[in-house]
Write a structure and sequence with these properties.
Rossmann fold, binds guanosine-5'-diphosphate, P-loop_NTPase, alpha/beta, 6-stranded mixed beta sheet
Length: about 425
Amino acid sequence: MKSTAGNTGGIQKKKMNGYVGFSNYPNQVHRRSVKRGFNFTLMVVGESGIGKSTLINTLFDSKIFPDREEMPPSAEPAKGVDVTSMSADIQENGVKLRLTVVDTPGFGDSINNEDAWQPILENIESRFDAYLAQENRVNRSKISDNRIDAVIYFIKPTGHCLRVIDIEFMKRLHTKVNLIPIIAKADTLTASELELFKAKILADINYHGIQIFKPVSDEFDDPETVADNREILSKIPFAVIGSEKHVERPDGTPVRGRRYPWGIIEVENEEHNDFIKLRQMLLRSHMEELKDTTDMVLYENYRTQKLLSMGHVQDNNVFREFNPLVQMEEEKRAHDGKMQKMETEMSGVFQQKVNEKEAKLKQSEEELYARHKEMKSVLEKQRSELEEKKKRAEVSARPVTPMEQQHTTKGKKKNIFSGF
Ligand code: GDP
């Protein structure tokens, strides 16, 4: 591997010379995800008859919502908002999806809709609470996630500005859920009416500081994705039509759509409505982002607020903000301290070894000196013995003088005689 010039924050960019294989990682993630399947929880909010069940069935091209009997309008006023959910396992190209659709029958159906948002908000929060309770368990291996990933909010195709109920709902919920406002039954408005209506809705949303879900591009997105996101963004709020029925085009091709005396309106025709863009964002390009936003932004905020309100205080010594420069400085200081300690320890050990060696040398020097002294005295002794011997030998080897002879003989005689 060769190093390239770029060096960002201490991490070097390296150029590889060959294929090693980690680029296959996305495929591994894909395989694992396909095996496990996905969960997606979608809430639909809008008054009865606005087209919620038809749109969901059209989106997933299956009967998620069962057929409703055409009910005669009830004489009794609606009893309030209910929250019901239904799940379905659907599969496409081997990929399994556990889809849960949460319906909110009764929303906007009462005479007084002031608090219509309340049971829905409570339901969304209770799902967060359930998740939080599971997260706080000792064993977290099997957490079931029922949090709402997105809410499709159906705006009545009035052509005027947003109603109080719409604004109130969105204001109360925009920090708790990914909001996707759509104009329902878009076929009931003309193209120019729709254009104007969209502008009014966006102005109201901006005015009230409501956050809605929008696809955002970042530096890592390829140009194609950036262009797709821009296209999707330009259609928000999506004006859609729903239809599970097929109608025939003039050329005889069957398509999902609605028939009018003046012609047909097709569900999957971008010139007729924004159904394709809604489906693209919701299911094809941004499902994961919706789930991520729910988990990392909306739920995380809720969790923080909840724990703080319960008296939990964050220990900022543990969770202090990460500053790489301070961190590096601290690491350097710790490293220097460690090196200094090692140096002191090493010089202590070194000094001890030197002392030991010196003591040993001194001891062996003394031993050598003692041996030398001993050997010297032995040699001295041997020398004086030898000298003594030599002297004696010299004396015995010298010729005897007549005087000595006489003396000796006398002596001998004497000795001889002395023997008697
Ligand atoms: P829900 O009560 O909100 O679930 O509404 P439904 O999906 O049951 O739809 C109520 C009625 O509106 C049905 O007769 C649908 O055929 C009709 N409908 C649904 N979507 C559209 C649409 O996009 N355009 C028109 N014109 N009618 C629609």
